[in-house]
Amino acid sequence: MTPEQYKKVKEIFHAASERNPETRVEFIAEACGGDGLLLREVESLLDFQSHSEKFIEKSAFDVGARLLTEDQAEAFKGRRVGHYQLIRELGHGGMGVVYLAERADDQFRKQVAIKIVRGGLATDETRRRFRHERQILAGIDHPNIAKLLDGGTTDDGLPYLVMDYVEGEAINQHCDAHQLTTTKRLQLFREMCSAVQYAHQRLVIHRDIKPANILVTHDGTPKLLDFGIAKLLDPEPSETSAHTATEVRLMTPEYASPEQIRGEEITTATDVYSLGVLLYEILTGHRPYRITSRRPDEIARVICDQEPERPSAAIADRELRSADSKTASSNPKSDIPNPKLFRGDLDNIVLKAIQKEPQRRYSSVEQFSEDIRRHIEGLPVIARADTFGYRSGKFIQRHRYGVAAAALLVVMFVAGVAGVVWQARVAARERDQARLEKTKAERVNSFLQEMLSSADPFKKGSNVKAADLLADAARRAEVDLVNQPELQAEVLRTIGNTYSGLFLVNEGEPLLRHSLEIHQRLFGPQHHETAKTLYDLAQLLRTKGDFDQAEARFREALGIQRKLAPQGDIQSATTLLYLGVALFQHGKADDSEGAIRESLEMTRKHVGDDHPGVGIALNQLGLSKEYRGDLSGAEQLYRQAMSTFRRIGGQRALESLVLMNLATNLSSQKKYQDADAIFQEAIALSRELFGENHAAVAVVMTHYARMYLLKGEYAKAEEIMRPAVEIARKSLPAGHPESAQILVTFGIVLVRAGKALEGEPFLREALAIREKALPKGHWTTANVRSMLGECLTAQRRYAEAEPLLKQGYDEIGAALGQKHPRTIEAIERLASFYESKKEPERAAPYRALLTKN
Question: Residue 323 class from Cβ within 10 Å (0-12 exposed, 13-18 middle, 19+ buried)?
Fold first, then answer.
């Protein structure tokens, strides 16, 4: 070998020594570039290094035990122990050797596993431990734990145990060999958890859970083996002796908990930890720690101090290594799961199980297994990432009084938020969904509680606004919850919905879009959480007046829900309902009514008549009938909706909406006395629920003013409308579709009160809003156009007024028919226009139409 070749060998050898064993082979092959001599020399050096390190680092006890085992295995092969003939060695551990044996007395044929204490280690201590293991196994009968069949002492005085022979492969090898999906691996792991929990219930801690001690049979049943170093939580007095303090700690370091490494008290949390390491390995393909040395100080440093990599990150690293490998694609068993499936709950579940401190792990194996079940079924889990929960606990200890005050603010905050939703979300959920929402609400509430503590008046002054709190919460959620993406998405969704309820749609929209992005990344496009966020985003877009986008998002959410529940469910019914509302607001009355009727039928089928969705659908169908000119039919539906809400109870926001619609309907029927009383009730309820300066109050006041407009009491109508417009300006963003009705009503009130010049700007603003928000030719836009024509007629600007009046009449009549009240009003304006121009012959046909109608 030339000096240059030797130098190259050294460089590759040192670089390869720094790499993980999993990537070393590919690295060497690439670095040597096809030079066989270089490759052989580097591999030779690495092999020598590996063997020398293992020999130096291995304890004299381990080396001696191995030599004794090898001698004993040869000596015992073929011997008879009790009723059984030993066939061959299956394996060996710290105290004994396990043999495959067969029944030898011709009574029946059966293969068993026999564990015999190592001959050179048959001390009083090891004999005691064998008796201890036999005592444990004798009290255990579980389908996932290998059974104790017999026990005794060999002719030369060595204790032995006879157990079920489990023919299978280690659980990690089984998962890889059969290319099990992540869900299948989790389900298999849960079976193993049931065995460990069973042992714990019988006051037994295994203390040596690892793949080699969990074999999966040919039919897929996992079996837990080897209770040789198990501990009784309630030992007999004879078992609690100084003999437990041995020089050699019995454990497998790679799966041992920090308290085992440090020689501290062992509890069931120890098995939880080992199961967590096992789950990490099953899911990612390697253990959370790399133990490269058997030196006790090095083992303690790695296990007790080193923080494990998140499983999703470990899989992502493995994915990158696989992509870099030239041979990875040729191995079908090298399939790597998608890291996105692990981010969030699954990461947190695994990391919670392997916390350094026992008290921060799952309180039991059963709780650990239950969290996995909830993850599989898409339910919320109790696992938390380190940062928020741990810090918030410390925060509460430091600020007890501030947190108590914050808790009060939370109650006030939540109560206020409940009142700001103009059309309340459907409240009832199916039982499992209700539990899911309750748990999520608790998690979100926990975050909001810490957030509200920042509203300390000594820090920010006494005038802390809800919008400021929401902005702070949103900023903190983006930063503090970055390692808890599922909780982050839920908090952002909650804050976004609250913004929507406050009509602060520009602030809420990016939060809901970010929440949607997270849910799509965590769960994929066909998941109920993704559908729920799409629905919430659609509601915000509807509130914003972006009806095209709202319709698209509602339909997208509905598509997912129909796939998840082909027979329909309450979530699909709710989405259909508000899709219908959005279609109606967008002027698509026929499509709207179809969606509303399907929603009503689906709601009644799944939850019956006593559901808010039924009342909302009846109210919306009432609007459809009124739109078509059937005022009496609409009144009946409004009254049915009101009866539904009052029968259910707790639907006061929806009651205020239906009260307004019913009063408006009665005023259109000229039942002014009844309408007035109901309007007064609706305004009082709206103020109670939403406060004086909410857009919902302005809307009800506008409808109330319209009644006085119909009665010809213009001064009274103007008196009501001026504060209504002021409220709308403060509470709604500029150009909001909901403000158009308020502006047009105020504009026409001013026109009728003899203030046409003052009313014109309000009518033009309303027309611009409707032309932008609604499809061309929509009758409500045409109605504003007709009113603007009336305003210009009052100012004798006839050339400008005539085309507006004609276009308005044509479009309203085409949409609503000749007998509809809005069409009749448009005809009246045209007749008055020509009469104002002193052209009675041109007014006559319109007067004839009015007489005919």
Answer: exposed
